[in-house]
Amino acid sequence: MYRMIQLESLVPETLPGVSLFIKHGENHVLYKNPDLSFTQWDKERLLDNNVTHLYVKSAEMSIFNQYVEANLAAALNDEHLEPEVKQAMLYQTSVNYVQEIFDSPAIAIRQNVERCRNLIQHILDDVMKSDGVMPALSSLVDHNTYTYVHSVQLRPTR
User: Fewer Cβ atoms within 10 Å of its own Cβ: the N or the C terminal residue of the chain?
Assistant: First the structure.
């Protein structure tokens, strides 16, 4: 089984540590081995061919999630990325993290509290320094009010 990832979540000249696949019809075809760097040339070639998503094996999502989280600060500080792209990255990273937690036993949740804190810090930092993120968040709220209300209701209390 495979999970879709956004091309923008890959930082050029880095080593994602997982196999990357392209979907061709109903098949997933290996694009890049885990021991090969993802390059700017790879990104440009994929974009030139209108490829905006790649796929990762479900069993490797935890590794990929940690790769994205480790590179999130650099991506969020990339002035070439539009605020909507940054918001999409934050959103997808958050969804991937929550899915990973739901798939994990309770002990793993306690072990991943620091990852959660780091992810929340990235979100807050980006919201505080960017004028474009709030309109993007607003469009998400408009699109899915139930998810937004549910998220607010689940906020941590002290």
Answer: C
In a domain, 97, yes or no: yes
**Region for 95 from its dihedrals, namely left if φ exceeds 0, alpha if ψ lies in -120 to 50, beta otherwise:** alpha
Query: pTM for the full model?
Result: 0.67
In a domain, 158, yes or no: no
Q: Give the integer Cα–Cα distance in Å for 61 and 3.
A: 8
Residue type, 95: V
pLDDT tens by residue, 70-109: 888 888 788 887 877 777 787 878 877 777 777 766 666 6
Is 89 part of a structural domain of the chain? yes
**Structurally, how many domains does the chain consist of?**
1
